[in-house]
Amino acid sequence: MGGGDSDIAPHPEKIKIVATCLAVAVGISLLGFYLKSGDEWRSNWSLSLNKKKKKKPIRVYMDGCFDMMHYGHCNALRQARALGDQLVVGVVSDAEIIANKGPPVTPLHERMIMVNAVKWVDEVISDAPYAITEDFMKKLFDEYNIDYIIHGDDPCVLPDGTDAYALAKKAGRYKQIKRTEGVSSTDIVGRMLLCTRERSISDSHNHSSLQRQFSHGHSQKFEAGGSGTITRVSHFLPTSRRIVQFSNGKGPGDDARIVYIDGAFDLFHAGHVERGNEFKSKCGMAGTLVDEDLGLVVTKHNKFMRKIGLAYDKYTGKKDILLTSRFSGLLERLGDFLLVGIHNDQTVSAKRGAHRPIMNLHERSLSVLACQYVDEVIIGAPWEISKDMITTFNISSVVHGSIAENDDFQEERDNPYAVPISMGIFKVLDSPLDITTTTIIRRIVSNHEAYQKRNQKKGESEKRYYEDKTYVSGD
Known about the structure:
Elements: H1 2-8, H2 12-53, E1 59-64, H3 71-82, E2 86-92, H4 94-100, H5 108-116, E3 123-128, H6 134-142, E4 148-152, H7 166-170, E5 174-177, H8 185-203, H9 207-216, H10 220-225, H11 228-231, H12 240-246, E6 258-263, H13 270-273, E7 278-280, E8 286-287, E9 297-298, E10 321-324, E11 331-335, E12 337-343, H14 345-352, H15 361-369, E13 376-381, H16 387-392, E14 395-401, H17 418-422, E15 426-429, H18 437-446, H19 448-468
Parallel strand pairs: 1-2, 1-4, 2-3, 4-5, 6-12, 6-14, 7-9, 12-13, 14-15
Antiparallel strand pairs: 7-8, 10-11
Helix pairs in contact: 8-19, 9-18
EC number: 2.7.7.14
Pathway: Phospholipid metabolism; phosphatidylethanolamine biosynthesis; phosphatidylethanolamine from ethanolamine: step 2/3; Lipid metabolism
Enzyme class: transferase
């Protein structure tokens, strides 16, 4: 009996083999479960990251008249953009400005061109109301997905004495930025009105003569008296930090084709932004930049903005500046890096008259730098373009507009473009818009009484602002 029991007992080696097989099977099952769970975990983790990446952008809204747009407006837009991910800008209608402030110097379509060109602006709303109403605020929140409404620390008071942003503040959707010191549209208009008043008192000129002499610098008596310096009463204190904030901070590549344009760029206006032929970027944004001395065009391109003669190359991502002929429809490649030369105050005064420029060199430089189509500027560029300058900056093309205040430069004994002309790299571009700094000045002079009245009213509120102002942090 005992021997039979021992015969049917399992052999130790067999038990070990079976146990090993079972262990391997269990291990494989566990490994499969782990790998499957790991895939699911990794997938969930990836989805979580994607959700974070696709987080709703913070959209901020800022509105304004943006009349005679200047670097102060641009700095406000820069600060507003820093408070969110996307900046939507409302441009107040002409009718609303007239009702609340007086006649604008630049009409809505020109102001839209200027706002569209600012590098920190993502979308633009035309005909915005001067005051934030319940209906418009609801539209901003529901249709434009706005999270916050932005304004400067200077008060914006309606004719009835109420705060234009009271509703936004009450809704808890209001944020404030620091006002840019030393400049305002009122101040700039005042500089021209001051010069106009000086002329009227001393010379008793009629409006036609006043326009002609103020715009072109033909008044010997005025220039000899040196009154032109009185118009440049800017309180702007430039800092290196502000220039860095406005700069792109990028230089041209080794193989970049650099296009150079120069000018005064005084009272940076729609004629500077949209004159001559269309410039465009192959990155889906088109552009144009010009001075009355230049006439180049920069047109921002997206679904919220109008498209002007846009030639878009979908096959290459490389940025290119193209010259589009209005008549032949031909495209001529000019370059991919726009370098802008800005003449200093002394040069502008010598060429345009003692009353010019209206804005000083630093003010003009910031206005140009704020334009998204400008890659770099030369602050205080020479009047004459030398071979050394062309070599130093590796300039491929030098351009000038057909409509300009100095369009008779080729008849001058010392042609400032003689060197690039001799090198075969100089081009004159057609200028479709006839808006120059002179155009803006004439608007002020011809209607100076209305602007004087407007400035007196606005000047009182600005005076109170400076008297009551306290320190506000911000940059």
